[in-house]
Amino acid sequence: MTSVLPAVFRSTCGRRWLLVVGYLSVTYATLPYIPAWRDAFTDAVGLERVGQGVGVLLTVAGAGWLVSVIIRRRERRVSVYIGFVVIAGAYGYAFSQVSIIIEKIHFIQYGLLGGLIYWALRATTRDSALYAHGVLLVTLSGLLDELIQAAIPDRVGDLRDVYMNAVAGGLVLAFIAAVVRPPLTWRRPTVAGGRMLAVEVSALIILSAVFASRVSGFGYRITDPQIGTFYSTYTRSELLDRDRQYLAQPERAAFWVRFTETVSTAAPDDPYFDEGYVHRFRRDTYFFKRQNSFVAYKEHLVLTTFYRAYLQQAGGFTEWTDDATRRCLAEAGRRGREPYDSPVRAHLITRFSERTMWIVVVCIVGGVVFCGVRASRRRVRGQ
After folding, report:
1. Per the CB 3.0–4.6 Å rule, which of 122, 125, 215, 374 could disulfide with 150?
2. Which residues on neighbouring strands pair with residue 232, listed in sequence order?
3. Measuring CA to CA, which residue among 338, 280, 337, 336 is closest to residue 306?
4. pTM of the entire predicted model
């Protein structure tokens, strides 16, 4: 059986990494189908029971591990039990902060991935750099996961999910270091290990920049005395120019409004329509369903000031009327003068430009590579 495998996978190390790659391949390949599976499963079992079941499984697993430590290892060091309580508590708290069931599953998946990566690294790495490698590889895997999700219809790539995935894997690695305590040498990484760390850090920086460029995007924070603040791909003047342009081209505007409302919220022609759709959706939702006239009024002001062309063509897709405007204004009352910060497009990076980001990335990666090469040469000379 093993003779069929390439030579690199016939070793213990190779087979372990093959399992890690297979685990990640299954994780990535199932991303498009998870929402449908989630809906079918929760319809059959119930969303609340799914959450309770996952919590029970984690509790049983933790209790089982604690029993094995007490009975099989006869552990007497108090620090091991303190580490167990602190890390298990941190994992449970972080898990409880994840409200979406799919992301809860991901949290568990990336915790398991942290353990698998540790197991694979353990075959060749005997120093404490193993944990740094593990955290970096888990974070890279989570970042790639979110990039794939961003390209899948009805899925969203979110940097917060990357952070939570890294936390899940990092806590499992911390558990191994503080509770399992494998026999590792706490020393500086080898030359080869240092090079690998430099490669991993560089890859993480570059992939993060790609995520920022392709998923988060860059834009501007716009301030208006009547509204407050909101975010857009365009500057204030560019957004007003776009609006006037589409007011003068009603047929083109009508086409893209229909496309955005019925086919996809990401109109490939212009982000103006995507932004208008989300502001319109948020206004209607907060007025008709959540009974929050303040939010609805402020979103209506955003639309009537900066997205007039969108609003003009969206009449068939909303229940909003002139009477709703009057009711909204009357119910908002004095609060209508308070500043408002719209979360629409709040993920846009506004503090620096894409060009500035790539300049910084090139400088940092160049510095990491230079330092890694220099440190390697020093270590070789010292030997």
Report:
1. 215
2. 220
3. 280
4. 0.77
